[in-house]
Design a protein that fits this description.
alpha/beta; Rossmann fold; 2 domains; 4-stranded parallel sheet
């Protein structure tokens, strides 16, 4: 039950009266990945699994490795060599078998696939087991509950593998089937980076599956997935809710990250910042209206990405400088 925060100042800046942030940065291990790990690891333990294996861009591996350690399970984690150092440390400290690959998550996935076959490991890769999505689904359940069982008009989600978006869509469909909510489904928006936007390209071309994105690169490491295994499910969710897919550049993400910190006092991750830029752009185009209820997912804490923000503080040469400046302000 992470908070659903009304963002009044940012909403005014975007001309949105009802803008909310679902803040996943407060969850254990600092990102939404812990939701899938909590359920996936618990079920693996229940059915007698002894060792998990998975490729990761960083945060999922950290979450699964730490939850598995608590459950007494072994883990083998393979991640790109340039994954965030903090997530590498989390995996290593958990006691997992950590391997780095000079490539992308897709390359890590191939290595894990072979290891699973050769050593009979439990494959915890995205959509290779059925329980991670049940953990991610809880985001959708919580959003509706926190809105007093009303469905928002738009939900924007940073999309790499896309399991979170698939899970939210699944949750909302199940709530409607149960009769717990009524009305139209929210328009779901998949947000990617201009440096890695296979889902966006597929949606723009009206396709049901995406193509592999060559030479993918973005500061928002969590959405640097050149070919999502569940791309067809993400696209189905977008098409079936009259949603859309949009790509955001790295510079815009960083600017929005700073703006949100200034206006709302929240240090969010670059993936979350991308989703807020997407909301801003779609509002400017009129795709989102001023009175829409808009929920943006911040999928992790900004402090897990220490290298994305480079601000040089002023070095005080004289200790009394601040005091002098404050006195001048008071005199004016």
């Amino acid at each position: 039950m992470t908070p659903l925060l009304p963002l009044q100042k940012l909403g005014e800046d975007m001309s949105l009266k009802k803008l909310y942030m679902k803040d996943e940065g407060l969850i254990p291990t600092g990102t939404f990945k812990a939701r899938g790990a909590a359920v996936g690891v618990s079920k693996a333990k229940e059915v007698g699994v002894h060792e998990l294996a998975m490729p990761t861009n960083g945060n999922a591996g950290a979450a699964w490795a730490l939850y598995a350690a608590r459950a007494g399970l072994k883990t083998t984690i393979v991640m790109p060599n340039d994954a965030p150092k903090i997530t590498r440390n989390e995996v290593a400290l958990s006691g997992a078998n950590l391997y780095l690959v000079n490539g992308l998550i897709s390359d890590a996935g191939k290595i894990v696939g072979k290891a699973v076959k050769d050593y009979q490991l439990y494959d915890a890769s995205t959509l290779k087991e059925p329980y991670r999505i049940e953990g991610k689904k809880t985001m959708g359940l919580e959003i509706v509950e926190q809105l007093n069982w009303e469905i928002p008009d738009v939900i924007l989600y940073p999309t790499g593998g896309g399991v979170g978006l698939i899970g939210i869509y699944k949750a909302l469909r199940e709530l409607k089937e149960l009769g717990w909510v009524e009305g139209k489904m929210p328009r779901l928006v998949a947000v990617q980076s201009t440096g890695c936007a296979p889902i966006v390209k597929a949606w723009e071309e009206g396709k049901k599956e995406s193509e592999f994105w060559d030479d993918s690169e973005t500061l928002a490491f969590g959405i640097n997935v050149p070919k999502a295994l569940g791309d067809f499910l993400v696209l189905d969710a977008i098409y079936n809710t009259s949603g859309c897919a949009i790509a955001i550049g790295d510079e815009s993400m960083i600017q929005e990250q700073e703006r949100i910190a200034h206006l709302e006092g929240s240090f969010i991750c670059p993936e979350g910042a991308a989703a807020f830029v997407a909301a801003r752009r779609l509002r400017e185009k009129g795709w989102i209206s001023e009175n829409d209820t808009v929920v943006v997912l911040n999928t992790g804490a900004g402090i897990k990405y220490p290298n994305t923000v480079n601000i040089e503080p002023e070095i005080l040469q004289k200790p009394d400088k601040i005091i002098r400046e404050k006195k001048n302000l008071m005199n004016h």
